Amino acid sequence: ELSQGVGVVQGLVRDSETASPVAGALVRLPNDAITVLTGGNGEFEVSVPTGTHPIEVTEFYHQAYTGSFSI
């Protein structure tokens, strides 16, 4: 039996115009039922199974981002 691996994803949410870190952004991985907030420096970290994952980032004063990543 093969077990699925787990990886750690680290990210930094930045303002698209100023490149400043965005604190308090909601980072959601809907397929994994994971939701985290970015820290004061805009960084976040989550553990997820290997594979491709959709990601959504929202913050009240910024345009939402939707994409995906593979690990």
Number of helices: 0
Q: Beta-strand percentage?
A: over 45%
Weakly predicted, low-confidence segments = none
- Category from helices, strands and their pairing: mainly beta
Strand order, sheet with most strands: 3-2-5-6
List the helices and strands and how they pair.
Layout: E1 6-12, E2 26-29, E3 34-37, E4 43-49, E5 52-59, E6 62-70
Description of the structure:
The structure is a single chain. With 71 residues, the protein is mostly beta strands. 0% of the residues lie in helices and 55% in strands. The chain contains no helices and six strands. It has a four-stranded antiparallel sheet, with no helix packed on it. The protein has a two-stranded antiparallel ribbon with strand order 1-4. Strand 5 and strand 6 form a beta hairpin. The protein is elongated, with a radius of gyration of 13 Å. It starts with 5 loop residues before the first strand and ends with a strand.
In short:
The protein has 71 residues and is mostly beta strands. 0% of the residues lie in helices and 55% in strands.
Which features would summarize this protein structure in a list?
71 residues, mainly beta, 6 strands, 55% strand, elongated
